[in-house]
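Chapter summary example.
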Amino acid sequence: MSQRRANPHGSMLPNDEVMPYSDDETDDELDESEESEEEEQEEAPDHPPEDTARAPGEFKIGWKVKVNDRAYHQLPEFQKKVFLCIKKSRYSGNAIKTYKYNAFTFLPLNLYEQFKRVANIYFLALLILQIIPEISTLPWYTTLIPLVIVLGITAIKDLVDDLARHRMDKEVNNRKCDVLLDGRFKETKWMDIQVGDIVRIKKNEFIPADILLLSSSNPNSLCYVETAELDGETNLKFRMGLRATDERLQEENQLARFDALIECEEPNNRLDKFTGMMLWDDERYPLELDNMLLRGCKVRNTDYSHGVVIFAGADTKIMRNGGKTRFKRTKIDELMNYMVYTIFALLVLVAAGLAVGHTFWYEQIGSKAWYLNDGKGYNASYRGFLSFWGYIIVLNTMVPISLYVSVEVIRLGQSKFINWDLQMYYAEKDTAAKARTTTLNEQLGQIQYIFSDKTGTLTQNIMQFKKCTIAGRSYGAARPVDWGWNNLADKKFDFVDHLLVELIKSKKDKDTLEFFKLLSLCHTVMVEKNDGELVYQAASPDEGALVTAARNFGYVFLSRTQDTITISEMGHEKTYEMLGLLDFNSDRKRMSIILKFPDGRIRLYCKGADTVIYERLSPNSRHRDTTQTALDLFANETLRTLCLCYKDISISEFEAWSRKHKEAQVVMVNREEALDRVYEEIEKDLMLIGATAIEDKLQEGVPETISKLAKANIKIWVLTGDKKETAENIGYSCSLLTDDMQIHYGEDVNTKLRTRQEKRRNEPPSSFRPGKKKPAELFFPGSGKNALIITGGWLYLTQCRLVFVPQIDFVDMACECEAVICCRVTPKQKANVVSLVKKYKKAVTLSIGDGANDVNMIKTADIGVGISGQEGMQAVMSSDYAFAQFRYLQRLLLVHGRWSYIRMCKFLRFFFFKNFAFTLIHFWYSFFSGYSSQVAYEDWFITLYNLAYSSLPVLLVGLLDQDVNDRLSLKFPKLYLPGQQGLLFNYKKFFISLFHGIFVSLTLFFIPYGAFLQTMGQDGEAPSDYQSFAVVTASSLIFTVNLQISLDTSYWTFVSCFAVLGSIAIYFGVMFDIHSAGIHVIFPSVFTFTGAASNALRQPYLWLTIILTVGISLLPVVCIQFLHKTIWPSVGDKMQLEEEEKKTKPSAFQRGRASRRSAYAFSHTPGYANLISSGQSIRRRTTTHGGNQDGRPPARRRAENI
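The structure predicted for these 1202 residues follows.
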């Protein structure tokens, strides 16, 4: 089947219905730059070379395994160099290691990792400087204590995490399994298993390595496995041993004599593919994935299985798929790092300026003052050099180490709030929301693009057989069916057309009987009996729904072996011999089964997508047009469709085909392609029977969620493997696409992109100034809404350079649209689409999915969300956040994300402000101390300021503050916009905090300085000493920063009030203790401010000085906040005003209190109650008093129009 078609212009365009081949490797980054793409575009030939198409990847056949021969794998030819002359076997042992540290490496390795953070190196350098006596201006413990606390907390957290990994590795490596050693099975630990060993796995045991299945307790060596831990699928799958090993390797002595040589592909991460060959007794046997039991699976419904280890430990497919989890950082993290660099640069400049000042001061004044002579004989320049390092130490608190600890505490608390949110708890599955990371919460408030899977994410992934068309007639639109006539029916199955049942029971319509016979025979479903009931285990929900439908209509699948399949046809049991099973894959998009009927006839049954089935129909096939019409109707109803057909095969034709099939099965290179070619030969000239239509319902609340997120200016892209029609109809049903949108398809995309390229090529180079990029024109000019629907085939050809399209042009076009749907895309393409938007738009992205095929996309996005759905937990295990329903996404973003962003921004702004105000007092003090690096505070105040005196109130703001409640956050999605635009924390806000800190530090220093110039105490003494000045300045600072955070707090709780008052109380309590005579006697050299606090604070005028200082510091803030509330209110302020008006305003309608019952109250159709009671439909009278004289709408109306 061709994947390309030529358009009229001669370029190669993709087939929209083709699912491009893709392996599971993920491109971490798209390396091609925009410039190189443009150069390639200019140099591109009119027709791309044919050899640029990427062929499906094949792995090297170079892995040899000798069964029951451990020494064979230690031969020199299987050795590989690991370091210099040291070699080891290329075959890994079966022990796994996921931990990072051991007892010897923990301390050095953990410290090494922590000191890779620039801030920790900075504080270590400060500590070293403080040890040097010549430049030390602060005691070493002022930096050591905070640094040890930070390093200790982080080390303990890392140790706890690594101990958990140690316990997990130990538990896995010490699991027991029976291994054939010295001719008999012995219980052995997993870690001691080696390649080539024969193992016996019992029922409900995990598989210890990647194993070739030899035999089992079931007939034909069938083995049922559960792969949930491997790929997230919860359905049981079956694996099957070769006929030769099944017949000859059942007993222990037979297994002990088994000496086959197995050649296969090298270890790789492909979960869906295995190619190999077994040489045994001069016979060659082909090996494929169905013969393999992969590590991580669990054996079910099979008493025991025997197998030989092919890949062990790190070579197994599950370990190869582990990979390294991408380290994700938020935009605020990146911005904060740049701001720390900015602060450090300012610190160096300030210290350098003060050092120069000290040099001139010492030349002109210091060297001439005999009482300042220290006897060291240093010249002015060297003293200036020492002063520079002294000020680096003194002013280091502009970059406080406690900032990083506080940020981590806030993020941890915000993650707990997400976990505890009962409104994101799904009672049906007893599943709560889970924040699986603590580092990305504020990023949830800045999302610009959401990339969503469809099946299981937007839909429920619970399939139900709804409609069908048989021989041109459609069924599924009449009254419900009673299944009482069928004892084997599934009573939970619903269908709403009794005419079809009557037709089946009459046995007169051969097409109808053949239709359901095909459904009961053409599948890979496994069956087991549970308390006498048939239980189907299907590889996909679709297939399970089809077999269940056939069961209810009288064609009951009963059992299967390797060669036969047994069904009940309207109560009569029949067994069919299975001659061939041509399985489904994403390239073929169909599956077939070749059966030999009891009467000797050979027939092929096939089911698949309409696009591939119609290409293979016989010219004599009937009902093509009527079936196509029905398929279009089903697709418009967002139903998933499959076409059913058959073909009678002569014995001679089958024998000729069977020989080709056996030859293709033993091909070692490109076996998949060889088999596909053989399949193509038999799957042609098919006769159409009809088509099925299966419903995959939307999850509850999906349309409302998408609509609300769209109002928050979040663009949603749906990336799905479904066909274009189904994806488009789901887009309409979930409100992603609306009737007022202009839909653009692949053909429109190519035309617009080609026009843009030609225009760029013909544009003269001098049309704009060099060095500056010309602003790109819009692809969709005008004010209308646009949506884009493209296919994986188009993306595939673009990526492979078969269609020369600069990636940035595609991204620009797609990002102009309100919605984008990419259908028929592979897992790799999903990840690449996310990478494109991240690369060219620098946007914050979120991916959400529920299946193993969404893992790449989830890991690639800035934030990954997993839904615990029908497809297992693989997506959840790879995600940053997880919950059970898509509708919870709006609460995660609009409430928790927005709150986390606002809280973190407010925390950072205030944290920088309070440290600028605290640190810059040293700067002003230097002008009066000869620039001598003398500190303005007592040493212990500097140590405890960020740890105890000012940390708790700002920490609680970062944890609890909210401008509006959660209900208003959801009601007005536009409140989300400031986070997307980064308005609450940026360089502008940073410099505002800097200048605010400069103003407050000026006030805190110069008002007490003026008060101390000419003063007299009550006792006639003048407390104008340095220590009293330090106490007054510090006290003013503590009052100012704690009252400032009180003014900035929007949401008051008892805890917030307690934190502010408690911080002030802790300051005075600690200060009076460390200024007491008792502690000075014990530590005379450490606590030197003896009696300073009690002496200074008993003077009333000093208290007046503190009050005046604090008042002047806070007055501008109060005035600015008043102006903002009244003249320039924020969106949040308007919401609060509306709520206050709603509480005070009487309801629009007053009814009597007498209760009246009316049947109308129980009407099945909701009326206009919400519209009327909200007052939105009531015309307000024009008022002549109390405001609104300027004709502006009332506050409530203004809020609603935001």
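To summarize the output: Residues 433-457+699-758+783-885 form a domain with the Rossmann fold fold (CATH 3.40.50.1000).
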